[in-house]
Design goal:
Blueprint lengths: L7 E12 L4 E10 L2 E6 L3 E6 L4 E4 L1 E6 L8 H8 L4 E6 L2 H7 L1 H11 L5 E6 L17 H5 L7 E7 L2 H5 L3 H9 L4 E4 L6 H9 L4 E2 L5 H9 L3 E5 L7 H11 L6 E4 L5 H7 L2 H10 L4 H7 L2 H6 L16 E6 L4 E7 L2 E5 L43 E7 L6 E7 L2 E2 L2 E2 L5 E7 L8 E7 L6 E4 L8 E5 L2 H14 L2 E6 L2 E7 L11 H17 L8 H6 L9 E4 L2 E4 L4 E2 L1
Parallel strand pairs: 1-4, 1-5, 6-7, 7-8, 8-9, 9-10, 11-12, 12-13, 17-22
Antiparallel strand pairs: 1-2, 2-3, 5-14, 14-15, 15-16, 17-18, 19-20, 21-22, 21-24, 23-24, 23-25, 25-26, 27-28, 28-29
Length: 562
Amino acid sequence: MAQAKRPAQTVFRGAEVLNVFTGEWLKGDVAVSDGVIVGVGRYEGEEEIDCRGKALVPGFIDAHLHVESSMLTPEALAAEVLPSGTTALIADPHEIANVCGLPGLRYMLDAARALPLSLFVMLPSCVPATKWEQGGAVLDAASLSTLRDDPQVLGLGEVMDYPAVCAGDPGLLAKLEAFSGRMIDGHAPMLSGGGLQAYRLAGIETDHECSDGLETLEKLRAGFAVLVREGSAAHNLETILTAVQAAGIGTGRLAFCTDDKHIEDIRREGHIRHNIRRAIALGIPAADAYRMASWNAARIYGLRGYGAIGPAYRADLVLLNDKQEAAVHAVYTSGIRRWTEGEPIPSPAGIPISAELRGTVHVRPSGQPRNIRSLALPVPPDGVMPVIELIPRQINTRRRDLPVPQRDGFFAAGGDFLKAAVLERHHATGRIGLGVVKGLGLRGTAASTVAHDSHNLIVLGDRDEDMLLAVQELERCGGGYTLVRDGRVLATLPLPVAGLMTDRPADEVNSLLRRMSALSRELGVPEWHDPFQTMSFLSLPVIPELRLTDRGVFDVGEQRYL
């Protein structure tokens, strides 16, 4: 078939084909048999697909994401991203691992084997994220090694505890040693100088936390592959690509990722195709944009047979109406058509979800009554407190030491100041961390069990009574999102699978998310904040500057609780 001595099974005829090896767009036919590309040139096939006037590119790869952040099961997410041209996902399931441990990881691996696209797993390196946190599980090097040789596993997921790496923490170094010779992902926001060199020396090969141009260039020059993130809460694409263009360096060490992206945003913008379209609009040549979406990611992660249109590569193909706009006409994985323009999103078929992944919200010791006094936050005599200030369109925060509103010696939310609480929800310890947040604009209360990465219960509000009601609502439904105001629950999205995901239909989830987004705008949240995504990162003590955990306000730079 490769030599055209007999017809191939399927031929994509007359497309403008992207050659990722040379960056050229070449007219030709693509011959496919048994899910593999056998040749590009002039071919005849038993089945022929007319591609004249269209472009053919390799299927898109999301180089780093958390499936759980979509709030959908893996099969439901696969159905949503396929129409965008995404044919492979590289997932770090540390969200469900922080709640459920190894059973959560096994569920994700089992689900991956039943999907119409490829889902690879990077085993989570930091469960819990740091020594400062307590989640639902602890995964050490020995635990992770039990899954190391699973065929879906590529390596070790994002090493978020970069201070522990630089300090030579024995437990973390044992994990790095266990995955020596395999791919190891990074997560090191604002790390530079000798610390960055040491982090790379430890064997860590990627980073997706670049928030400015200088950081991007320093990490590329240190040998990291930079994953260009455009998600729901973090938008780094323009910053990274502008810096790379200004420096005159190539895009060969860049790949696209979403990290955390809600279903509503996927449906409105598209998945990786949104990154492609934005890159082209910024002046990146189309061939380079598509290579970042496929070939670059495949090379970075060692995915043999992925990311190119050429002999011996998987027939994961995207047929485009318009390559400048990344307008998808049809999507194929292993040569099988999965979606064509005008068709509804396919209905997914998934695997059963075990009982041990449900019923995971336990915020009080048994028999302990709910007490609103537990939300009381004392103010120092001078009235000044360390305030967590949000930054528009970023997940980083600023530390601001400010006078805060108070009543009878206790913080009283008002103006742009909200009370924030994180309640330990895995072991019913009753532990609560309290702090002050500025910049969300919320007039009411929002609560969630999606709180990276330990996924304790986080609640922000302007009335203690409403905050307590929001906690009770999430206990009732087994986790999720809720909005409350003036003693009334306005809306709730239940997420009963580990308090992170739902097995309800995506249409139902999206409809409720849209309603809750609209309600949040009515409650004063500006358009540059996705309220629940923004809130979900407030408890992650590896991203500067201030965070809030169930133990209190944490200064990431100083590595101490304030």
